[in-house]
Every structure is written in C-alpha cells, then in structure tokens.
Design goal:
Layout: H1 25-35, E1 40-44, H2 48-62, E2 71-75, H3 81-89, E3 98-103, H4 110-121, E4 127-133, H5 141-147, E5 152-154, H6 163-174, H7 180-189, H8 194-207, H9 217-223, H10 227-240, H11 244-257, H12 261-283, H13 288-294, H14 302-309, H15 314-333, H16 338-349
Helix pairs in contact: 1-2, 4-5, 6-7, 6-8, 7-9, 8-9, 10-11, 10-12, 11-16, 12-13, 12-14, 12-15, 15-16
C-alpha cells in the first residue's frame, strides 16, 4: 500500500486516500517479527482458519507470560464501551503488552463505531488491539481509518487458478510432501477453504502410514470424496471422446445432482479450450509433452487427454467454442430450458468419431 503510516504509541495519522485492505499477510509476518506487534491489527475475511492463524501469530508476539491477565475478548454484537476502554488502557501484568481482541467487528452497533474510531486514532502504547470479522465497510470513517493502517488485512481463500500453489504452501506448513499430480487432482476436487484443504492433506498423509512417503494420487483418490469431480470428468471425457450417449447420461446426472448449468458449461468450455490449445500447439510442430504442458493438462491425465484430442481437428474445436458462446447466451437470456440447451450443445459437439 502506498502512503502507509505506521501506528505508533501516541497516535495514528488518518489517510483520506486509503487503499483497500492488504492481502499479503504471509510476507508481512517477517516485518512484524522484527518490529514487534502493532498497536492496531486487523484481519478480516471469510476463511476462518486463515484469520485464526494470523491472530495466533500476533498473539505470540505480544506475550507468552501471564496470558490470562493480559488477554481480553469482546464480541461485536455485545460490545461494552466501558469494559473495552478499561481493557485497552490497563497496563500489562508481568508482560510487555496486553492483547485485546474485538471479534465479529461487522456486528458492532453503529453507536460503538465512534468509540473504536477514537481509540484507533490514539491507541495505548502497551496494548495491541486486534479486530476481526467480515470485511469492514470501507465507506465508513472507521473502515477508511483501518484501510490506512499498515497491519490490517483481508484474507480470502485463493481463486481456482492459484489453488495448486496454495495447496503446496499448506502442505509445506504441515510438513507434508505431496506429488505434483496429487496437488492437481486435489485442486480440481476440493473447495478453496483452508480448513478443508488441511483436513484433506492430513487424511491423505495418514493413508500410507509412512511419514517418509509423499502423498500421491492414490492417497488422494482413496481418502477424498471425488464423486462430484468424477462425474464432471465423465462428462468432459465423453465429450472429448465424442461419445454422445455417455455425455448425455453424464449431463443428466449432473443436472439431477443440482449442478448449475452455467458451471457445467464452463467445465465443458474449459475442456474444449485445452483441446484446442493442445491441437494447435501440436500441429505447429511442438512435441507432445510440451503441448500437454502448454495446455495445462495434469500429468496423470496426459494419455487419456491426448487420445481425446485425436477425435477433434482445430477447425472443429473453434466451431465448438463458438457454439459454447451461443449456449451461454441461451442459458442467460433464452426461454429454452437449461437442460435442453445443454443437450443440444452436447449433441452438436459430441457427434460421431472423426
């Protein structure tokens, strides 16, 4: 963030042009470890596990001594201004700092905003105030003040494209070695939620019973529920192999399970784009292995994907992608039932073998 002014004992300067809340807590930990705990620390977002890890890290910077005497927790909905004022201004006992935590800041009564704002602008020198909850409203004075501080973060789970790298970082944090193929399979199956990812890694790690053995595809397949992703594989594989009957059956199963039509279309479109990239790269003279890598194909799917690509020409795939765009428009603005629109699309692209 630009124009950040650290919160020091004696006051915080308000930045009227505050940037959005920071996202780089992992990188900022080293700064905190060197400079010590901040006067104001904020961590917000929907991923509770990420928030709790960040809060615990700052807690350990504050004090490991006489914790019960130097730790206070407040809930936003039941916020008591008098008790809060007493807590943040009480001197630490047998420790260098106190740690005061206001949870669920988004539930704070409007009348209490002024109390917090006043304190954030002039915090006590021996207290770290931690604020957590859903993303604060940055249009309010308190929200703008928090966004102007260097130690307020918005921690959200990664997007789908960043999920493999995130899984690798979580595995490293847990001391688990995991194969590249296993990461790819898990990333295609699991929700982008830290607690779910950690639990899946822990189950897979225990599968082989050997702490020296890496988590592999077998461990992921045996310990994770792959029902949904396997049905999507069945649909995209049938389309790739131009097996119209199997594709129709897989589509009907996905619709009965409640999958969103646009999500189904997005998965099919992704498969078509990968096939097009692979075919066009291969046709240009690039090696099969390099073409598979360029198309983003997980290594454990290399053979089946390459076999599917033999059923399609570059020209056919370009037409199929145009049909995908037409189907997208039909799903969003046509009176045609979604199941019918998707079936018509599948019939068009999963015809006879070529």
């Amino acid at each position: 963030m630009q124009d950040q002014v650290p919160c020091k004992p004696g006051g915080c300067r308000f930045n009227p042009n505050a940037m959005p809340l920071r996202h780089d807590f992992d990188a900022y930990q080293n700064i905190l470890a060197k400079q010590g705990p901040p006067a104001i620390f904020g961590v917000f977002g929907s991923d509770r596990a990420l928030n709790e890890e960040a809060i615990h890290f700052v807690q350990t910077l504050c004090t490991n001594q006489a914790w019960d005497f130097n730790h206070d927790i407040f809930n936003g909905r039941e916020f008591d201004a008098d008790r809060f004022s007493a807590a943040v201004h009480t001197l630490p006992m047998m420790a260098s700092r106190r740690f005061v935590h206001v949870m669920d800041l988004h539930e704070l009564p409007k009348a209490a905003n002024d109390v917090l704002l006043k304190y954030v602008q002039a915090p006590a020198s021996t207290t770290t105030l931690c604020l957590s909850g859903q993303k604060p409203d940055l249009r309010t004075l308190l929200g703008k003040q928090l966004a102007s501080l260097p130690a307020c973060f918005l921690l959200e789970p990664p997007g789908r494209a960043q999920l493999p790298a995130f899984i690798k970082r979580r595995a490293d944090r847990l001391g688990i070695t995991i194969d590249h193929d296993a990461i790819a399979l898990l990333a295609m199956n699991i929700q982008a939620e830290t607690a779910s990812i950690d639990m899946a890694l822990d189950r897979a790690f225990c599968y082989h019973g050997d702490p020296k053995k890496s988590v592999d595809v077998e461990a992921i397949r045996e310990t994770c529920d792959l029902g949904d992703i396997q049905s999507i594989f069945a649909l995209t594989d049938a389309i790739g192999n131009k097996d119209k009957d199997k594709a129709r059956m897989a589509l009907r199963y996905a619709m009965r399970r409640g999958d969103a039509p646009l999500q189904i279309l997005a998965m099919i479109t992704r498969q078509l784009r990968m096939l097009l990239l692979f075919r066009s790269t291969l046709d240009s003279g690039i090696s099969r292995a390099q073409a598979l890598r360029d198309a983003g194909v997980p290594p454990f799917l290399n053979d089946s994907f390459a076999a599917q690509a033999k059923h399609h020409t570059t020209h056919q795939l370009m037409i199929a992608l145009q049909q995908a765009m037409d189907t997208d428009s039909a799903l969003k603005g046509s009176a045609i039932p979604p199941a019918t629109a998707l079936e018509q699309f599948i019939d068009a692209i999963a015809g006879e073998h070529t």
